[in-house]
Specification:
The complex is a heterodimer of chains A (430) and B (251).
Chain A lengths: L2 H19 L5 H14 L15 H5 L21 E6 L2 E2 L13 E4 L1 H6 L4 H4 L9 H10 L4 E5 L8 E6 L6 E3 L2 E6 L4 E9 L5 E11 L4 E9 L4 E11 L4 E8 L4 E10 L5 E10 L4 E10 L5 E10 L4 E10 L6 E11 L5 E10 L4 E10 L3 H8 L5 H17 L5 H20 L3
Chain B lengths: L1 E10 L2 E11 L4 E5 L6 H9 L5 E9 L2 E2 L5 H6 L2 E4 L6 E5 H15 L7 H14 L10 E2 L5 H15 L3 E5 L7 H13 L6 E6 L12 E6 L2 E6 L2 H9 L1 H10 L1
Parallel strand pairs in B: 3-10, 3-11, 6-9, 9-10
Antiparallel strand pairs in B: 1-2, 1-4, 4-5, 7-8, 11-12
């Protein structure tokens, strides 16, 4: 290892020592996780999983670990009846909804879970493989807390909103970690909302999901962080027999974002529906890697992401489906359609299939195009300004994904952010 | 209302309009007829401001304004309406949204207040009845999955809602069965008014059985070869376009 490459690792090691000195619990798991991070290190220049995304800028930063347990960052209006707030990776009951949780939900911190005898190895598990294993490991080493959310057997609780925020006017980093376990036969809807400000920082999040047999879990994710934020997130879900994991993702913020969204369909008839939208305007760089592993008979997956890029914005979409041997009668569908609003923008999309079973249905389509000039003229010939016409067509393009977001308040919030951003970016262009 | 003088236009290197003159007064209905490729649709496109056409010579004056210098949306707001030959399907843009946005753009231009949702719906419902369109059309994407006849009816519905001063109907009769043609013609006739001019661009005389024009022009090879009253249309139907071209050559 060269001296230059060792330097950021030395910094992170020092940060880890500081965290360890604070005795956050689970010392053995954290030490192992940190060594995992140190062993993998930052991506090398020719790392296929980071082909279009450079982390050199992030690598050069020396962000201190955020530590102010009393900080009160500004929070947006709630999108669900009950809210849980995580600031700098810490669950903050004082900034969360007061009163009892919706019936069927149970919420615990790492300490509580530990004294209840929950397995630390499970709560701080580092999922292997993919481009973000290193960051998932770093998260396990540095996370100040784990928010453990259980949905009870057969429960159908009211929707819950989890807000992940940061504090402090100085640059820093935080490592929020959320574990969601949806027990057998439950049906739940969880909004995961990342908010931010203009301060430069790293948010390195891990969301670990278990969907039990016959359970359905909807995850509504809104990434609306600041333009100078580095945001790295790994969502790792395992779905049991006849379980369903449904993601509705809206990536509208952060300066540089990377999401690895992995679903493991581990038992027969398990399914995943992973849909989303990303908007890379300004000089944002949004990189999304979605992977579905079909391990069992009759599993189904649908991946449908739409992307919009403008200005010097750049987006990357990599969709991978692996149908393992024995996963007969499985179905894997994938679509990624992209829209470039200006010539300087760029979107790189790559579908990948690996199929080791012979009786399966797989389909994929990836396109990148521009607004239809005939439709633009039609709208202008009816009196809409060029800006209005472009906004209407862009909203229509995004709408195909937004219409799947069956959580009304969430869909409205996404549309509001999207509309405001479209108005700004389209006004800025001739 | 509209004065076109010596209009020359081309697409790329292909010259299409080659010195077209046309004068349309308020309240008149004009039919522009001609064989395929004569420049009829180009004329409609140039007047509406479609990209890709280059005007190389001549002028178009609309209500005292230089029409060719205006953006398409400014023409629309000033009362120019083009009923498209091929209305564009725009999935995801709601018909009601388009109608309301278009209407309010025109109303702002006229110095009128914007309609609220309730007033807008009441007004649109009336016009939809006239066009025999079901209200469910409002919540569908613009022209999305519409049949040919439904698309044309939707164009005339938009025209009825926007109440333009100058309506250009580009081959609105093409692809219509006789029932749809009657509905479309009734819609157009209901919009005849002393302060509104209508230009029907058509290949066939059939439309003129239902909408009676004040003037008929024959367009061929980018110029108007002959103008007359509605009897010219019947003559054309009987004798064909070659007859006009031969007459023109002789003259």
């Amino acid at each position: 290892m060269s001296a230059a490459a060792a330097e950021p690792l030395a910094y992170y090691r020092a940060a880890f020592e500081v965290v360890r000195a604070g005795d956050p619990g689970a010392a053995a798991q954290r030490a192992a996780a940190f060594e995992r991070f140190a062993a993998i290190g930052f991506p090398a220049a020719r790392d296929e999983a980071w082909k279009y995304t450079s982390l050199r800028r992030l690598e050069s930063r020396r962000f201190p670990v955020h530590g102010d347990a009393g900080a009160r960052p500004a929070l947006p209006a709630p999108l669900a009846g009950h809210r849980i707030t995580i600031v700098d990776g810490r669950w903050r009951p004082d900034l969360s909804s007061q009163g009892v949780l919706p019936g069927g939900l149970r919420l615990r911190s790492l300490g509580e879970a530990q004294s209840d005898g929950e397995s630390l190895a499970a709560l701080l598990r580092v999922a292997q493989g993919g481009g973000t294993e290193r960051f998932a490991a770093l998260n396990a080493a540095l996370c100040p807390d784990v928010v453990l959310l259980d949905v009870a057997d057969g429960a159908a609780p009211e929707p819950l909103e989890v807000v992940v925020a940061t504090s402090g006017a100085e640059p820093g980093m935080s490592h929020p970690r959320l574990v969601i376990r949806a027990a057998r036969g439950s049906s739940s809807r969880i909004v995961l909302r990342h908010v931010g400000d203009d301060t430069e920082r790293l948010v390195n999040a891990v969301v670990d999901v278990e969907v039990g047999p016959d359970a359905a879990l909807h995850l509504y994710r809104l990434l609306d962080a600041g333009a100078r934020a580095f945001h790295i997130e790994r969502i790792e879900a395992t779905v049991a027999q006849r379980g369903a994991f449904l993601v509705h993702d809206a990536q509208l913020g952060a300066g540089l974002a990377r999401l690895d969204l992995n679903a493991r369909l581990a038992a027969p008839q398990a399914s995943a529906e992973l849909t989303g939208l990303f908007l890379a305007d300004g000089s944002r760089h949004l990189d999304t890697h979605v992977r579905v592993d079909h391990f069992a008979v009759g599993t189904r997956s649908l991946v449908d992401y739409r992307g919009v890029a403008a200005g010097r914005g750049r987006a990357v979409f990599n969709g991978k489906a692996v149908v393992h041997a024995g996963a007969q009668q499985s179905q894997a569908r994938q679509s990624n359609r992209n829209l470039l609003l200006t010539p300087g923008a760029e979107i790189d999309t790559k579908p990948e299939f690996e199929i080791y079973a012979d009786d399966v249905q797989c389909s994929h389509g990836a396109t990148t195009g521009q607004l239809d000039p005939a439709a633009l003229f039609y709208l202008r010939a009816r009196g809409l300004s060029a800006t209005e016409a472009r906004a209407a067509l862009t909203r229509a393009f995004a709408g195909a994904v937004l219409s799947r977001m069956d959580h009304a308040a969430f869909a409205v919030a996404v549309r509001d952010v999207l509309d405001a951003r479209l108005a700004r970016l389209l006004e800025a262009q001739p | 209302m509209l004065s076109i003088r010596d209009l020359h236009a081309r697409i790329g290197d292909r010259k299409i309009l080659k010195g077209l003159d046309l004068e349309i007064r308020a309240g008149e209905v004009h039919a522009i007829m001609g064989p395929n490729g004569s420049g009829k649709s180009t004329l409609a496109s140039v007047l509406a401001g479609r990209e890709g056409y280059e005007v190389t010579q001549g002028s178009v004056e609309y209500l005292g304004m230089d029409l060719l210098a205006m953006e398409p949306e400014d023409r629309a707001r000033a009362g120019v309406f083009l009923a498209f030959q091929y209305p564009v399907e725009i999935p995801g843009v709601n018909n009601a949204y388009l109608l309301k946005a278009a209407l309010n753009a025109v109303r702002r231009q006229r110095g009128e207040t914007e309609l609220d949702a309730f007033e807008f719906l009441a007004m649109v419902r009336d016009k939809m009845k006239l066009m025999q369109m079901d209200e469910s059309f409002l919540n569908r994407g613009v022209n999305e999955g519409f049949s040919g006849g439904e698309k044309k009816r939707n164009e005339i519905l938009q025209m009825a809602v926007l109440e333009p001063k100058l309506a250009l109907l580009d081959e609105t009769d093409s692809g219509l069965d006789i029932d749809a043609l009657r509905v479309v013609a009734a819609g157009v006739n209901s919009l005849r008014a002393p302060d509104r001019s209508i230009v029907l661009v058509t290949h066939y005389q059939r439309l003129l059985d239902y909408i009676e024009p004040d003037r008929v022009h024959v367009l061929s090879d980018g110029r108007i070869l002959r103008s007359g009253d509605k009897s010219l249309a019947f003559e054309l139907e009987k004798r064909g376009y070659d007859w006009v071209r031969q007459e023109a050559r002789v003259a």
